[in-house]
Every structure is written in C-alpha cells, then in structure tokens.
Design brief:
This protein folds into two domains: 15-200, no CATH class; 203-231. The N and C termini lie far apart (70 Å). With 231 residues, it is an alpha+beta fold. It contains five helices and eight strands; from the N terminus they run H-E-E-E-E-E-H-H-E-H-E-E-H. The protein is globular.
C-alpha cells in the first residue's frame, strides 16, 4: 500500500477478539523501511481513501525490534494484510503473533493458506506476481474475492496485468487444498497497517537432521564417559 503516515479508522471485523485466542504473542516495535517486489496499481479503490488512488501492491520491508534487544533489528519481506490503514516509516509498538495458524481470520484462513501455497514462492522474485498476490490477499482476508465489488475494487485505470493476475489467483484458490507450506508471524497495530511474514515449513528431512544434530553432543559425551570408565 502507499507509504504515508495516516491514522485511519479500522472497520470492526472481529479480528481483535480472535487474536486473543491465538497463543504466543509479544510486543515488538515495527516500521516500514522500504519496498520490495510489486507494482503501483495505477488506480485502485481501498477503504483507506474514499476515491481511487495509485496504491503500492506488493512486498514491503519491515524492520522489527523486540523488547529484549531494542538496539537490534531484523528485516523481513512482508505483505500487508490490512487494506484499512496505511503503513508508517516510524517505529510503533505492534503485537506479534508468532508462528500463527491464522485462526484470527476464521473461515478465511484456509483461503489465505491456499493463496500462499499457490503464489508465495513466485511472488518473492517477480514484480507482477508480487503485486497480484498482494491484491488477492486483501480480497481473501477482508473482502468478497470479487475484484469488481466490495471494499477492495479494481476500477478504471487499474493496471491490467495486476487485475488479470490477481483474478487468476482468486479463481484457482480451490485447486490448492492441503496443509500449509508456510508458518506465519502476524504483526498487528490498532492505528497502522498490519503485516504478515511467511517462512517455509521445514521438510521432514530437515527436522530429522536437526534432531540428529542435537543428539550428537550427548552421544559423544556418553562415549567419552564409557571410555574413561573402562580405562
């Protein structure tokens, strides 16, 4: 979304109540630090503004500092999961839901997971794909999955490629059932844009290697003790 500091009124969608049941959470300070892959829309209707505008649709780089290492920050590629508010380039306190299962989005969580399974890998390295995924994510998370109606709309002047690619993603959601290929951190703020950061779920082989690596030091220590006892 367009980068400017703006305290917009969030429409009540029940998100706050759902978040309380999501489990592990912490307070971080977060800011938008730059743009990644994506495209400007040309023209798009979003709830943050009464008339269509030229919004950024794509990845943003966010910087995150936690309360325990406030002088250190990490940067992540994030997608906006909140078309009702603007991002800001200044640090603000966010609530971070760690490795969330997206239950905050209720029945929409399955479609969000399907969208990530379908599109996230390609969106990380391509401007059109990133822009289309962002637009589709707004539609899935907070609208009616129809680009011509609702709170998020493509209007005259919207980038034609963006519109076509996003519609294709929405049409194909039902083809990507199954477990999530990603885990998610959700960053929420009452005034500024909310962000979703994804990371691939490790393959079973990776877990096996990790467990083997954790067990190796103990095995070596036991062998050493056995040798010392028999010496």
């Amino acid at each position: 979304m367009v980068i400017k500091s703006f305290a917009a009124r969030k429409v009540a969608v029940g998100l706050a109540a759902c978040l309380l049941s999501m489990g592990a959470a912490r307070a971080d300070v977060v800011r938008e630090a730059g743009l990644g892959y994506g495209l400007y829309s040309g023209s798009l209707q979003l709830p943050v503004q009464a008339s269509p505008a030229n919004y950024w649709s794509g990845f943003q780089t966010i910087q995150v500092k936690d309360n325990f290492s406030s002088l250190l920050s990490q940067s992540f590629a994030a997608l906006c999961v909140d078309p009702y508010q603007y991002s800001t380039g200044t640090f603000n306190t966010y609530t971070t839901y760690i490795k969330t299962d997206l239950s905050a989005f209720g029945s929409k969580s399955a479609d969000i997971i399907a969208l990530y399974n379908e599109a996230y890998a390609g969106a990380q390295t391509d401007n059109r794909k990133a822009a289309a995924m962002q637009l589709a994510l707004w539609e899935v998370a907070y609208d009616d999955k129809n680009l011509l109606t609702g709170n998020v709309q493509t209007v005259a002047g919207t980038n034609a490629n963006l519109k076509a690619d996003a519609q294709l993603l929405l049409d194909n959601l039902g083809l990507y059932a199954g477990p999530s290929q990603y885990t998610f951190n959700l960053y929420t703020n009452a005034t500024y844009q909310d962000y979703l950061v994804a990371a691939p779920v490790p393959e079973p082989e990776t877990y096996a290697m990790l467990l083997a690596g954790l067990g190796l030091p103990g095995f070596i220590a036991r062998r050493r003790k056995q040798k010392e006892a028999s010496a």
